[in-house]
Amino acid sequence: MNLAKSKACTESFTNKFNGELSIRACTSRDIKEMVSIYEKVFPTYPFPIHDPAYIQKTMYENVDYYCAERKGVILALSSTEFDMTSKSAEMTDFATLQENRSNGCANRLLAVMEKRSFLKGIKTSCFLFGSKYTAK
Length: 136
Fold this sequence. Notes:
Layout: H1 2-6, E1 21-25, H2 31-41, H3 52-61, E2 63-70, E3 73-83, E4 88-96, H4 105-119, E5 124-127
Parallel strand pairs: 4-5
Antiparallel strand pairs: 1-2, 2-3, 3-4
């Protein structure tokens, strides 16, 4: 337990945006932009993340969506799917637009997702950065 605490994730990240990058939970107002980003990053996906109705439905049921944004423009997305019965979560659907990659967006998203999951009482989580679904 002490070893795990000593290796806890920090929120110290570097990026070219000089602190102008913020992470927040997505809302229904973001769905149109989210779908556009998912379509650009993932031409195919095993879930209908290109469908605004699907995003909205899951947003209200068991998925928290997060975005990294700069000056009100979304640069990257991710999601946490919860199973409150087992107190577990899967952190996935990381999508960063090509021009914004290598700036720590995914790391910052993951750090916030981990904290928020812990606050919800999640005991076990996993995250998936890689996928057989190739990003453009």
